Amino acid sequence: MANYKLQINGKSYEVDVDEDTPLLWVLRDNLGLVGTKYSCGIAQCGACTVHINDEAVRSCVLPVSAVKNDKVTTIEGLSEKGDHPVQKAWEEVDVAQCGYCQAGQIMTAAAFLKKYPSPSDEEIVEGMNANICRCGTYHRIKEAVKLASAKTK
Amino acid sequence: MEKELKTNRRDFLKIFATAGGGLLIGFNWTGCDSPKMKVVSDEEVLNSALNFNSYLSISPTDHVVIFSPNPELGQNIKTSFPMIVAEELDVDWSKVRVQQAFLDTEKYDRQVTGGSGAMPHSWERLRTAGATARQMLMEAAAKRLGVSVSDLKTENGHVIHGSKKLTYGELANEAALIPVPENVKLKNINDFKIIGTPVKNVDNKAMFTGQPLYGLDIYREGMVHAMIQRPPFGMKLKSVDAEAVKQIKGVKDVLTFKNNVAIVGDSTWPLMKARKQLKVQYEPIDGKLESTAFHNQVFDEMLNTGKGDVKRQDGDVRTAFSSAAKVVKSEYQCPFLSHSPMEPMNFFAHVKADGVELVGPTQTPDRARNAAAEICGVSPDKVTVEMTRLGGGFGRRLRADFVEEAVELSKMLNAPVKLTWSREDDITGGAYRPAVKYRFEAALDKDNKLIGYKLRGVGINAGNCTRENNFPSGSVDNLLIESLEYKSPITTNAWRAPITNFLAFAEQSFLDEVAEAAGKDPVAFRLELLDRAKSNPVGEIHYDIDRMRKVVETVAEKSGWGNKQGVSQGISVYFSHRSYVGQVAEARMVNGAPVLDKIYAVTDCGIVVNPTGADQQVRGGMVDGMGHAMFTNMTFTDGISDQKNFDSYRLIKMKEIPEIETHFIDNGIDPTGLGEPALPPTGGAIANAIYKASGKRVRNQPFMEQEEMKNVKLADPA
Ligand code: FES
Ligand code: FES
Fold first, then answer.
1. CB-closest option in B208, B216, B654 to A141
2. Structure ipTM
3. What is the atom index within ligand 1 of the atom nearest the CA of A60?
4. What is the pTM of this model?
């Protein structure tokens, strides 16, 4: 066990866990930040996506020891009032079915739009393709990313 | 109202009570009786032994709260059902709050999600509940104003008399004293204001900000985490070497029960690590272990020589086939499939001295309750079930195996337990869509009329793998439908649109083959059969011919059937879990390979309650049907699936979906469900379009792993 200091959603946290513990489980089991979801655990689905600094990262394969002083943002901290343009677009397009994958989709989209504020349709598909939605909400995800991009302009 | 979002049942009911003094009506929306209604007091709710599965309350502050008793797994019932109550109540939707009701073993009737059956079952009940409350509010207003009820009308949560307007909130107290009226008048469907408008998912905000909603999000004081290693199918536990594992920090214990090895600890990750180091040996229960090659052999042997269970027989197929001018014969096969909802199976159980507390995602809370009661030897009323939102279900959470495991562990450990299945557990854990193989034969006479039709299907633990009364039954003089079953240790279960999720593809592809052999256009051929069923029906007919016909005609019209240059179209139409769905897929040849561009879907589910939810269900069902038809395979070696996680168990991704255009035949008929209906026809529409474009007929799923599809690239949005 080792002690790690983490900067998450603008707050400091301390945890005592094994160094190979994925950030996902630290968030969920140790810190009560359960918005970040577990689905595959092997970086195949994107349900566990968080931001490390401004990059979308799969927290299920990121050992806590690798986080260091990097700024971690989870779905809970994406915006203070749940009003990030991506969250607003998701609400407006009514994207979710079961909703389980959507935190990861939103985090992926937010990081993607930060890098590419005005993406083409093809770029959106490229940027979002690695996130699985078992309910098949892909059409609406695409539409919501477009809307969020328009909103931020 | 903020406080009502608490997830503790006792708190919830208390707060509910303090918000009281208003009108509180109990009613059933899932029960089987006619809708009984009663005005109840807060007290009665608190000590409730009342047999209602839902409550509608109107507080003096004008807020309307509607309990939703059915588990929500993405089918949007938590939004669409309260809409129906609110419609008849005649309130402003923005004043409505929806609460997930908890399973109360005493209070609530059946609370199940599955089979697309909830909507047809509850439509009338939901409307009556809303209309009853409205009637009582009107009677209260009539009393207060000294006028007759017939001089009053309602609008947006107000009772109106001339220029006088009273809010429901101010009438709620008095309305509660009015006896529940026997007969209430329902709205004319043309006057609907909420039904038929797009109402957004009531959980959007919570989902999009990461609030704890799902079973895996449950954490309780003193809870231990558990994971279980289960035997491959057909094997039992021989020995466990858990010494190394027990040394891992965070692992508390390793226990065995019923051929399972459970690791428990204080958080999830140490258990996942321990799983990798755990040394478990299994041995076959009896005989040999099953693999895919063996299943293929079973299919062929049984199709050729097995004695079929005759499900439907019309006329005389023997004579029809011996006199036929042409016979078409084809076989179709599909693999097992895992449901693989994004949230893996999990459950929280706390076995206490005086009962059992269960919390988690289930489609059948009732079954969970009974299973827990049996394991613990207590009566079911000592078991409470709190339903979380489900991160998908697709039929998997109709079973209670994961609940039973959590209960067993909590009982053994004498502690609250959260059981988590890994993705690997989920995919290898059984309860699969059964693997099935069908043999179809059709006889055409010299005028290319369909005079004989045979279907013989073999399923592995599939029960009746046919749907003998579905189309084209009723339109063919001589017909024989037979089902055979092979019993395997590999467990199966209902999987979204059970049986039809593959049968529809096979049947709709085969009908295209027959149409081609008869030299007929696929749409014209289907219409000809429907005309035949209408004018001169053979045997019983279990589908509505006119509705089916309308769906075929509409999808042909919307897709511009037969009028498009450079595009190959394939049609599929199915009477599907009470609704009617027609789909036309379009493919184009690009560099010698078919590319899927678009699918049109026309659905007749009667009245469309919530257009945004309905569009979602249709799209979702089609993406599901397409993904599993094209990409997902599950093969077995020695009793365990070769695919264990999403790297090899291949789900459809965004890049692979074509454009989808949805239409609804909103015909004013009482609504039917939408969780399943759009899925079954999709595979057939796609396969028929691919054939039209490329000349390759793909009969086995997943398409992309078949010989016919070698080097074929599909659905690339190039
Ligand atoms: S849970 Fe991390 S990518 Fe699937
Ligand atoms: S909404 Fe259910 S998995 Fe995406």
1. B654
2. 0.98
3. 2
4. 0.93
